[in-house]
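Sequence in, structure out. Go.
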Amino acid sequence: MKPSFRHIVLLLLLAAPILASAQKYACVNTEYILSNIPDYSSAQTQLNKQAENWQKEIEAKFQEIDRLYKAFHQEAYLLPDNLKHKREEEIAAKENEAKELQTRYFGPGGELDRKRAELMKPIQDRVYNAIERIANEKNYAFILDKSGSATLLFVNAKYDVSDLVLDMLGYKPGAKTDSGDDGATKKKEVGNPEMKRPK
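Output:
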């Protein structure tokens, strides 16, 4: 007797929970992984220093504008209307210049975003490639990131593969110390631990 369409659907519905339970899951903490990669800390320090320099440059421009504005108000009653108007325009132009510089450095797609991509993306790509390789080798259905805004209420530590990712990247896992030093050290690499995406 041939199984009917209804029997096949019923069989699939009954098998779905069994198949789903056979799926393997894992999690990583990307903040922990990145904090154990010295290159990432170095890149973050470099990025912060560059941002600080740009911020100082912008603040200096706004301080100059403030000085010009105060000087203008002290002399405004002595100036003829045409000179008043000219000085106001000069101050407004300098203010627009400073705002444009601020947008160029810190706005969306600005210099800071480009610098961040230049410094951080290669490191993040290496981490992603390691996670992807682990997922393929261990047959994980998916790997969750438990850092940041993820809303995982509970994760059994045995499913956290963060140390495995660090090991695959060639770093020895270790907690950061209070002095700010990274506990991670680069292990002697055998071959190339930075793997290519599986084909």
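Check: The first strand starts at residue 24 and ends at 28. The chain has a mean pLDDT of 78.
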